[in-house]
Amino acid sequence: xxxxxxxxxxxxxxxxxxxxxxxxxxxxxxxxxxxxxxxxxxxxxxxxxxxxxxxxxxxxxxxxxxxxxxxxxxxxxxxxxxxxxxxxxxxxxxxxxxxxxxxxxxxxxxxxxxxxxxxxxxxxxxxxxxxxxxxxxxxxxxxxxxxxxxxxxxxxxxxxxxxxxxxxxxxxxxxxxxxxxxxxxxxxxxxxxxxxxxxxxxxxxxxxxxxxxxxxxxxxxxxxxxxxxxxxxxxxxxxxxxxxxxxxxxxxxxxxxxxxxxxxxxxxxxxxxxxxxxxxxxxxxxxxxxxxxxxxxxxxxxxxxxxxxxxxxxxxxx
Length: 318
Prior knowledge:
This protein has 4 helices and 19 strands. By secondary structure, the chain is α+β, with helices and mostly antiparallel strands. The protein folds into 2 domains: 7-59, no CATH class; 116-302, Sandwich (Jelly Rolls). The protein has a 6-stranded antiparallel beta sheet with strand order 5-18-6-14-15-16. A 5-stranded antiparallel beta sheet has the order 13-12-11-8-17, with no helix packed on it. It has a two-stranded antiparallel sheet with strand order 1-2. The chain is elongated.
């Protein structure tokens, strides 16, 4: 029984001598080119051992390099075709790619989150207005912050300011509203004087407070506060869930400025981390799935509640 050598068909080698012996003819051994999926061209008819091991005769490193390049080219072409098909499905049938956290889709695409992150390591310094993505906006933006109320027992006779933008403080605070401690502000976050109810407020162009009260916010436990400031309304979320929406009586006052956390003794009330700002209005799914994840108490440096203390009270001579 005659054996069949298939290496010529795999590597483009034609052994005419084998064909001659099979046919019984006395044709002189010659090498001629045959069809090959790798198209290595004409090669010699025999396989041999080389210094690096066995290799089909006439198949050198250059031939292998060409074959690998062709395979990679085919794979690249297949990937392009698949990508085009997926894009077609994404735009005309149903979402496939998830461009931003919370957006519909299956495959998350990194690098498309347009939020700017500050205070990543808990260093809550002043953020100048020119550093903000909302430098030219007084509304139509979203701001998110991880907070931990460290010492709720630090009481005062006026709201305890935690966070604000473009604020100008009164020299003598008095009263129980945000305007009793600030002359102006874009937004402000504060605790009520003697409870852990939180005030989130925006000042409108008529210099009226547009406020939402969050009753009994968590103490000694991190939570995520999200504010969506629009031209006609304010939405406040706690841990990704909408707490309340309030409609404005007038659009926000055109106040811009830096963002800063509480200073002085009020700085001991809370800890802050992962302040993130978008120059657009986020949808509820985007807010719920926003990144980074909520900080842990350990990451925020939580400790036991300090001894009871009070913020400075204005004296009668002030």
